[in-house]
Write a structure and sequence with these properties.
Blueprint (H helix, E strand, L loop, with lengths): L17 E2 L1 H4 L3 E2 L1 E2 L6 H11 L6 E7 L2 E6 L4 E5 L3 E7 L4 E6 L4 E5 L5 E6 L8 E8 L3 E8 L7 E8 L2 E8 L5 E11 L2 E12 L8 E7 L8 E6 L7 E5 L5 E5 L17 E2 L5 E4 L5 E5 L5 E6 L3 E9 L5 E7 L9 E2 L3 E5 L6 E6 H4 L10 E3 L2 E3 L3 E7 L4 E6 L3 E5 L5 E5 L20 E3 L9 H5 L14 E5 L5 E5 L14 E8 L4 E8 L14 E5 L4 E5 L4 E2 L5 E9 L5 E8 L5 E7 L5
């Protein structure tokens, strides 16, 4: 017999909800055993709740009874005069109660409140699922996905769960496979819950490209999978991630979305620092944030403007957006497109800063070409924007004018571009003093007028032509994908490069530091789109020509090439055989946000 201070139960209300004063501290009860002969009723009550998802979250010995608080928010009281013994087993998360008459009641205690798994919860990510987890106990949620090739083992993701209700994505399933998933919950090193799900996934959609892996040196590669913002499909454009075997392991397709079934994310998706994706929809004024299961988390509008190409998250969390302003007129009274940059306050959704590039640059310059059609002129064709937090400026890449730095008052700081044709900007200011002068490897000014103009190349220096995807290297230098379209104002040599420049803003010079791709010729030539990134963990460069690349045997597509910055050893190479624009951007990322 368990000893207690009081042994008299005060029964106040004889109904399905009973107020039981001495032991419940005046709390409403859902069940009370009022007599030791009602043990069978207690068993029956718990059996109606038992479905492996209900458990005792905590219990108290209050005066002369046990009070059990269930995960269903129900409260049950059993008088301790009817109980002979009780014990907890942490290894099995069970509470065992032995009644005086010999019956033994076993309850799940301190384990999972609920773990529900939903495959493809929003119908946009056919290689994912969602776990809804509730527990009062902090622990570790372990997700184990068996590889379709048994020799490759398992993929394991572990989340630290603080207790309460949380949702967790399940990522990395396989097409054309019965996926075996194991979910475990671990408390203090003990597995208190384990369940196995069989998830059949059908064949991949036929719009995905043929992926051919040519080089894999995993010990020298940056860890992660390959995110491709895929354009060959047409609208809605899709994004997918594939592993080093060429297996697609994540796919986002908004075909069934009420607002995004015609999505064109242009440059593509990138990952926010919070782990979600962000992208715009061209042509519209809408910008989006989505999680890994495709759920739209946030949406922003840029009224009076139309998104195109690129959004970049700033260090302070706000956005830089490349935009077209409705009704913006060029000097010849055509509608000027793709010539504005916006700074968007992410919290308020307000436009904080506007750069009209007709004011800061020369809208009359035609040295690298322009596009005119149906009353529209694309005189600059901005394709990327990055902030430079070192001096609170932005760096803008444009197809027809080069690459340039602006301050927040829309003043030019420098221009990296072949110098032919530069005159005055929209304010009447001469732009020639802002042109960077090329120097050789030793830092000496290059004197040859043809090289300075860009008609010919120096052994140490070439201008970028129709470049994309610039970024600031950790060493402070400027990296970009030099497409090479109209190189030297014509097509004498056809190649694309990843190229690095050291910009001296005091002496207004540009020195070429590093390049890769020229030696591969048409094998890596892409006259449009494309990407380049740096991964500091292995000091590797990801060089990704994205459209109409010569993949051999008359096949066109795109490529991803990872190489070491110091040795230029190729450690990964993949071909994508697909028509048209395969991708604007490619990223090496972990499957799960970190």
């Amino acid at each position: 017999m368990i000893q207690s201070i009081h042994r008299f139960l005060f029964l106040l209300l004889a109904s399905s909800f009973i107020l039981f004063s001495s032991c419940s501290k005046e709390k409403e009860l859902d069940f009370i055993m009022t007599d030791c002969n009602e043990v069978a009723k207690a068993f029956q009550y718990f059996e109606t709740l038992s479905n492996d998802r209900n458990y005792v979250s905590r219990y108290e010995i209050q005066d002369d009874c046990f009070v059990f608080y269930l995960n269903t928010n129900e409260i049950v009281a059993l008088p301790d005069k009817c109980i002979d013994d009780y014990s907890e087993n942490p290894a099995t998360s069970q509470l065992t109660i032995t009644f005086n008459e010999g019956s033994v009641l076993t309850l799940t205690y301190g384990s999972l409140l609920e773990l529900d798994f939903t495959y493809n919860p929003y119908k946009h990510t056919p290689l994912s699922g969602l776990i809804e987890l509730q527990t009062d106990k902090a622990g570790l949620l372990k997700i184990i996905i068996e590889h379709k090739d048994p020799e490759k083992g398992e993929f394991i993701k572990t989340f630290s769960h603080p207790g309460g209700f949380r949702e967790y994505p399940v990522l990395g399933l396989f097409f054309s496979h019965m996926n075996t998933l194991t979910f475990q919950y671990v408390i203090d090193g003990t597995i208190v819950y384990s369940d196995i799900y069989e998830v059949p996934v059908g064949d991949p959609p036929d719009y995905l490209p043929e992926i051919i892996i040519d080089v894999v040196k995993e010990d020298k590669m940056t860890l992660g999978m390959h995110l491709v913002s895929y354009r060959s499909k047409g609208n809605p454009t899709v994004a997918f991630m594939f592993d080093n075997d060429g297996e697609v392991r994540w796919l986002l397709d908004y075909t069934n979305h009420p607002d995004l079934s015609w999505l064109n994310f242009d440059v593509g998706m990138e990952r926010l620092r919070n782990g979600n994706w962000y992208f715009g929809n061209w042509p519209s004024q809408n910008l989006y944030e989505a999680d890994m299961t495709g759920q739209i988390i946030n949406q922003w509008d840029i009224p009076g403007y139309e998104f195109h190409h690129n959004i970049q998250e700033k260090e302070n969390g706000d956005f830089l957006v490349t935009a077209t302003k409705w009704g913006s007129k060029h000097e010849n009274d055509l509608w000027a497109i793709e010539d504005h940059i916006l700074e968007l306050d992410r919290l308020s959704g307000n436009i904080k800063t506007v750069w009209d590039l007709k004011e800061s640059l020369d809208e009359s310059r035609r040295s690298l070409g322009t596009d005119e059609f149906q009353g529209v002129i694309d005189w600059i064709h901005v394709n990327a924007v990055q902030e430079d937090p070192r001096d609170n400026t932005i760096i803008v890449s444009s197809r027809f004018q080069g690459i340039f730095k602006l301050d927040y008052n829309n003043n030019v700081k420098w221009i990296l571009s072949p110098p032919r044709g530069w005159e005055t900007n929209g304010r009447g200011e001469d732009l020639n003093p802002y042109l960077l002068t090329p120097v050789d490897a030793s830092g000496q000014l290059i004197a040859d007028a043809k090289i300075i103009e860009g008609v010919e190349n120096h052994g140490d220096f070439e201008y970028p032509w129709m470049q994309h995807a610039h970024f600031i290297h950790p060493n402070g230098n400027l990296f970009m994908f030099d497409n090479g379209d109209r190189r030297n104002y014509d097509f004498r040599e056809i190649y694309s490069r990843a190229v690095e420049y050291e910009i001296d803003e005091v002496n207004m010079t540009a020195r070429q530091i590093w390049q890769y791709g020229k030696e591969r010729g048409t094998n890596t030539f892409s006259r449009i789109v494309s990407d380049v990134d740096h991964h500091p963990d292995k000091n590797n460069i990801l060089f990704s020509p994205g459209a109409w690349v010569d993949n051999g045997n008359g096949t066109l597509g795109g490529k991803i090439i990872e190489l070491n910055y110091d040795t230029k050893e190729v450690v990964f190479e993949a071909r994508f055989n697909a028509p048209g624009i395969v991708f604007h951007r490619v990223e090496r990322l972990s499957l799960y946000p970190e």
